[in-house]
Design goal:
Blueprint: H1 2-42, H2 47-74, E1 82-85, H3 86-98, E2 107-113, E3 118-121, H4 123-139, E4 145-154, E5 158-165, H5 172-175, H6 193-202, E6 209-213, E7 217-227, H7 231-234
Parallel strand pairs: 2-4
Antiparallel strand pairs: 1-3, 3-7, 4-5, 5-7, 6-7
Helix pairs in contact: 1-2, 2-6, 3-4, 4-6
Length: 242
């Protein structure tokens, strides 16, 4: 709990810096991209010049995406709370993840999801959290491997979600740093994925717990407060209304 509190304080401070920086970056980038696009359309075509302009546009898009992640990390958009059937939402997210060409034929996702569990949450926040965690698990697996996703009820009216991979695992030093903004062990990436997950879960009074051992894989776990199902979920149509 003490480590969690320190993490929250650090990320709040970093969040303000990131938000201010992102605002300062996004406007010039939009002007730059727009100007290059106009030049590309109006000047006489030259293969070498066109190649350079495509590079500028590509890198501008990359920087704009990074700035957007800064803002998402720093100031999470207000979510629209709705009652979500957790098993259905998780299944849909897994289906979306499995369509990523990067992981087809390489990563297998086994999921075991209890039914009849509802949570009050923004559906896009849940999807963002799960896609980030599945992506991290998949990137920890060098060749072929398996991710095991489980969701089940636990005491005090919570639902627990665990994601276990058989990837490279992490040392204690890395575990202590993975929630730091911009920290990454990957050759590419912003190092903001888990920071964003942390902030999203924090808004729902939850937190991500991590257990890992080098060369033995990683286990990620978080809990969500359960809620009553909507009335429509309990309605049974009579014969005359079917």
């Amino acid at each position: 709990m003490e480590e969690h509190i320190k993490r929250v304080e650090k990320m709040a401070y970093m969040g303000e810096i990131a938000a201010n920086l992102a605002h300062e970056i996004k406007n010039p980038l939009a002007s730059l991209a727009g100007s290059i696009q106009l030049l590309r359309e109006e000047v006489k075509y030259d293969p070498d010049h066109d190649k350079l302009m495509r590079i500028v546009l590509r890198e501008t898009d990359r920087l704009s995406s990074l700035a957007s992640n800064f803002l998402l990390f720093a100031r999470l958009p207000t979510g629209k709370l709705e009652k979500i059937a957790l098993d259905r939402a998780l299944s849909e997210t897994v289906e979306l993840f499995e369509k990523d060409n990067t992981f087809i034929g390489r990563i297998n996702v086994d999921h075991e999801l209890s039914s009849g569990i509802w949570v009050l949450m923004d559906s896009m926040h849940l999807r963002q959290v799960m896609l980030n965690l599945l992506l991290n698990a998949a990137e920890a697996i060098e060749s072929k491997g398996t991710i095991k996703l489980k969701m089940y009820p636990v005491k005090d009216n919570f639902a627990e979600i665990t994601i276990v991979d058989n990837g490279c695992g992490m040392s204690d030093d890395i575990i202590n740093s993975i929630f730091d903004p911009f920290f990454t062990t990957k050759s590419s990436g912003t190092g903001l994925g888990l920071s964003i997950v942390h902030n999203m879960l924090k808004t729902y009074d939850s937190r991500l717990d991590v257990e890992s051992k080098v060369d033995q894989g990683t286990r990620l776990c978080f809990k969500l407060k359960r809620t009553e199902p909507p009335l429509s979920a309990n309605l049974t149509l009579t014969p005359e209304h079917k």
